[in-house]
Amino acid sequence: MIDEMTKRELNTTLSRQLSVKIQINHAERIHGGDINETFLLDTSEGRWFLKMNDARKYPGMFERELSGLEELRAAGVIAVPKPFCYGTAGNRAFLLLEYLEKGSAAPDFWESFAASMVRLHEHTRPYFGLNDANYIGSIKQYNTPYTNWAVFYAFNRLMPLAKMAFDSYRIDRPVMQQLESLCRRLPQLFPEEPPALLHGDLWSGNFLVGSNGKAVIFDPAVYFGHREMDLAMTRLFGGFDTRFYYTYQAIRPLEPGWQQRLGLCQLYPLLVHLNLFGGNYFNDVKDVLQQYN
Q1: Whole-prediction pTM value?
Q2: Residues with catalytic roles
Q3: Cα 183 from Cα 172, distance rounded (Å)
């Protein structure tokens, strides 16, 4: 919950950042995942969505999230909650966002969602990566720019998380060696494509149906990467409706062999979950590696 002292600090900080006097009348705790506390704020200036966490544990997280949301919004192809400001209140960091009402899915919801993702992926840059590191979940995500996707994926995605898992005894030496071997062969496994603007963490928990019946995406881990990464992520943890994939493929077909690369692209989020939660994700990582070794 938000105690009275934190609420007073939030009133002061939000008023200063938004240049209008803010009075929080009520803060209702709502579901928000494993890392953050989330609240629906009823204020003197309307309803907002607030995320909070321990500022000492996750330095810069909300600053990077705000930047990622602005990057997605600037593309102008899919609904994204508007971020207003970030800051600290006591030892807690916060991010203030537009509050979006949920709706019922339009008949063409999945087709429209897929078409929007195609348009998002058409936004490009000369390099893979981003200007700064950000987060995926509570894990730092490195975005050092490279012009080659295979090099980027090895050095910014797989190997940092493999080292983290090895150092925490979540993977053993044979698995680490398999990951190193796979990274050396990535140039032969991925087809060349231009860098695509990615949501970066696109699973069923990171979108909702907006009041207009269309998709709204949030909680991104934005970077410019291979577009198969977003598509592979959607197929983890239940997957999207088949209409989404048919429509995407009809508009902008993936390169041949994309089905065989699903596990390769899912290896990164699986390593994220292995580092966060351990358990059966070790077997999932081993299963993927066995496909390519």
Answers
A1: 0.94
A2: 201
A3: 17
